[in-house]
Amino acid sequence: MSIEKQVVPASQYMKKNLGISEAPYEAYLNYGYVLLAIAGADGEVSTGEMNWLLNHQRMVGAPEELMEKYKSFDYKSAKLEELLSHITVDVSTWSSSRTLLYHAIQMARADEDYSSEEQKAVKKAAKLLNV
């Protein structure tokens, strides 16, 4: 089995607040990539935005090796359509779409500049997610 398909136990935060006990490695990876693509829609992922992502992903239990992958990800070439289809968890009642959009806005605002390009990227993701 490839590492992308391996299941990673969720953090206590995820278990307690979202009822999620585990998620595929690929879901953690692509969740972060989607956030990077949205926050980087203005051409840059600022230090504040990257720090927000790294802190958030650690809080939810993402494997530590993903932090380096996030830092080197080519968010400027990312395709939201492809990344969004690889985010799954073990709870059907959790609204991954709404949570992802909420986190995207939080991350994009982490540098106190929620640009029009970032707003457009959030709207595009919302449309793709049927929200």
Main traits of this protein?
single chain; 131 residues; mainly alpha; two-stranded antiparallel sheet; 7 helices; 2 strands
Average pLDDT over all residues: 90
Q: Which of globular, elongated, flat, extended, rod-shaped describes the shape?
A: globular
Q: Which strands sit side by side, in order, in the main sheet?
A: 1-2
Low-confidence stretches: none
Task: Give the gist of this structure.
The chain is mainly α and 131 residues long.
What does this 3D model show about the protein?
- This protein is mainly alpha-helical and 131 residues long.
- It contains seven helices and two strands; from the N terminus they run βαβαααααα.
- A two-stranded antiparallel ribbon has the order 1-2.
- Helix 2 runs antiparallel to helix 3 and helix 2 crosses helix 6.
- The protein is globular, with a radius of gyration of 14 Å.
- The protein starts with 6 loop residues before the first strand and ends with a helix.
